[in-house]
Amino acid sequence: MPATVGDLRGRLRLADSWALLKPYWVSEDRKAALGLLAFVVALNLAVVAINVWLNNWNRVFYNALEAKDFPAFKTALAQFCAIAAAFIVVAVVKQFYTMRLQMRWRTWMTNRFLARWTAHQAYYRIEQSRSADNPDQRISEDIRSLTTDSLSLSLGLLNSVVTLLSFITILWTISGPISFALAGHAVTVPGYMVWVALLYAAAGSWITHRVGKPLIGLYFQQEQTEAGFRFGLVRLRENAEGVALYGGEGTEAGVLKDRFTLIRHNWHWLMVYMRRLVFVNSGYGQIAIVFPLIVAAPRYFAGKITLGGLMQINSAFGQVQGALSWFVDSYASLVNWQASSNRLLDLQDAIERAERDEAARDGANGIVVTQGGAAAPPQSGSAPLALLAQGLVLATPGELLPPGSPALGDDTTAGHGQILTTPFDLRVNAGERWLVSGPSGSGKSVLFRALSGIWPYGRGHVQHPAGARLLFLPQKSYLPSGTLADALCYPARGHTQDAAALRGVLVACRLGALVERLETADNWSLRLSPGEQQRLAFGRALLQQPDFLFLDEATSALDEETEAAMYALLVERLPHAAIVSIAHRSTVARWHGHHLRYERAEAARGAAGATLDTATASHKAAEPWAAQLMRPVVVAG
Ligand SMILES: Nc1ncnc2c1ncn2[C@@H]1O[C@H](COP(=O)(O)OP(=O)(O)OP(=O)(O)O)[C@@H](O)[C@H]1O
Q: Which residue in 528, 522, 481, 483 sits closest to 509, CA to CA?
């Protein structure tokens, strides 16, 4: 049996779970939600009432049989039809409205999590800081099971309590007292069948709990191994080309087989423990058929109860015993419910941390981005716009730097890791063209992320010119699933431009062959070559007409002639836009009049650099793989 099973059940966080569940019931949807809940609860109570009715019917029916009373037998059958019809109607309506309530609740929670996860780019921050794994699974799977299980468990509990109360009274009334002699004393136990049912259920629950307990961890682990296997399959599908080109299918098949072996191994233990549980459960169930009859038989043979009474006791006993077994029957669901709740609580914590970090950015701790006024004095022929970066220090996400680090100050809380650069300033005026160059891994892409506002790690201030449109094109642009026109207009949803404009842009970007396929839906990131995808990104820039355009190796997949054509197109169509390009190729340089170069900090040591060097040297000593500290310097064009 796997040793880890016991550790996988997670912590009990009932108060936190309640705090997670409660907001829906006090939200703007509360009236509809509480109305639906009241209706579903009423239907559940109706089911219990029908069961009580059926229990009574048992007595009438079997008494009619015993008395060979054919008219009473026919009346009882007619009654049964009414009971069955009522049961069917209630069961159908109950199921329907319970599912409706589940989906309403799930929709509300999903929207809430989606809104918070996507707001302030928390989804990006969580990935960078790895503060919660698989948010996708948590938002889809865990919200679904949490809402579904919360309803079914609480309605199940309600049913059991009401059933218990109803049938304990019945059982108490109909079973009567039993008298026997104990050590010379006459003992009378009132409602003795109730005590028998309690003892029987307690013994059964205890045995079931003992035998079934390991299954909880095993089911948890089964979910995990299944998810791991599914993830492996999806990864192979998504990277089909890369694997095929390397001929890596043998390795992939091996990895998938290994993952499936985990499923099989866990399944083996599930089978073993399930066999024990089914043995106990079916034995318990079989005995339960005759057990109440045996216990009540003395009173029947003594003529104190009729056959109908005996059958009614039998059915009431079953109901009481079933209600008392709720905890054991629901044990696995309860643990799964707690696990889903914990996973969502972790995601919620990660989102809140991202929100807090976002709010805490103040320049000294975390890079802060503001919208400025007319930051640059108007220059002849150019708009009074400039993008400013002041005292910028770039860092990677990760563990906190030790307190007292001279690089980021004592109050560092934003989870910075490795420092990448010494402090530097940058001013990009409207219409200027800047080249950013430096060794691979020196932090050029990180600079773009910091300028865009999605990268808080480090310190300093960035000011975007008020009202200016900024567009960042990475080396590999994201292409959404949908039509080619959707991909071209992204991030706008649907077409924001007329078809003629889209066609014109495609032709200008040397993608004329795709004009006919503008309305074709496809997985365009797999269909288009990397170079075509880069030209499509240029098309986006032409459509969006940004004031500041940032190109991060955006022509790396193009031949030099096409690259030149694309830059010429930008210069022609966006004459007033500032263009900032990261590029390794020397051919790109000629399109730019300004140059920001990353140099090794040792080679450009200054006063600030010296203190940062000290901080980094100790960091690097602990982690020899750490990146080289860089100093971005403006060099003559
Ligand atoms: N999310 C992250 N977590 C940890 N480290 C990161 C993260 N993103 C980037 N880094 C590290 O930051 C450093 C700078 O990365 P960046 O992508 O900016 O380099 P670059 O100069 O653009 O490189 P290249 O020229 O190869 O594209 C690298 O050492 C990289 O490993």
A: 528
